[in-house]
Amino acid sequence: MQPMSDLEMPRMTAARKGLLWWFRWPANPYVCVSFAVDFGSAQAYLRDLAERHGRGITVNVLLAAAVGRVLREFPQANARIVGRRIVNRDHVSLAVPVDRAGRGTGMETAMAVIRDVADRPLPELARACASAVGAERQGQSQLWWARWLVAAAERLPLRVLEPAFDVVDRLGRVPAVADRLYGDLPGAALTNVGAVLGRAEGMVFRGASWALPLRLMHVGTVWGVSAVQDEVVAVAGAPCVRPMLPVVLGFDHRLFDGAFAAKLLVRFGSIVRSPASVFGSDGEGGAA
Fold this sequence. Notes:
The protein has helices at 14-22, 40-53, 59-73, 122-137, 144-155, 158-171, 175-182, 258-273, 276-279, and strands at residues 2-3, 30-38, 80-82, 85-88, 94-99, 109-114, 188-191, 221-225, 229-235, 238-252. By secondary structure, it is α+β, with helices and mostly antiparallel strands. It has a single domain (2-278), classed as Chloramphenicol Acetyltransferase, CATH 3.30.559. Strands 2, 5, 6, 7, 8, 9 and 10 form a 7-stranded mixed beta sheet that branches. A 3-stranded antiparallel beta sheet has the order 1-4-3, with no helix packed on it. Residues 1-10 have low confidence and may be disordered.
């Protein structure tokens, strides 16, 4: 990670400086925005990839690619806050929660890291996602310190772990230390918030809210998606049933404001509504 420069991002304006001070710990700076995107074209696109090209690309892979493109085009949303600094990131990666409950591991959840999501064609990204998630489910995290931390947490009582976590948290607020601890970790996350509902009869997902703790690793944006659900929306001024993808974007207000967030949402929606124009008819479209 390199310090933010005027060439890479907007300069540290009075608003940014004020918000960094205003939302400092213990205040929580995260804001959530809920919206839904017509997923009909994306469903047709994924079917076409499977039927014509023999490529089974999942919804989650497509969404990871879409988020990656958005973060590549709007690098301010891919930044990280360390102490009183905003630092840019030269790569776009995502943290993805992995459900390990009921798999005989004794673990509830884990976190897979999908690297370079903005730079891979869809088939390659699908393989990277499958590999990272598979490794996490087998207890083989790609992050050596995560494996060590989990092993320690399993064996040590909470009264011993809490002081250790506090020390790591304080060290992580020092820029030079944070670069070593978190330099390769994602500044954004994609999670299936609400997806456990699936297509529940008589229910639709309406949104979620969260307040991420300002401890350990900083995350600039969290993209929460639910299962695609049929909803009545206006099409050409008339009511129509469409497959809609509910999305919740949580972002750190210290990095950017609602007007900037709106640009992210509009761009994300345009990618989801026309994936072939971004990733190519065969999913082999190159990096943005």
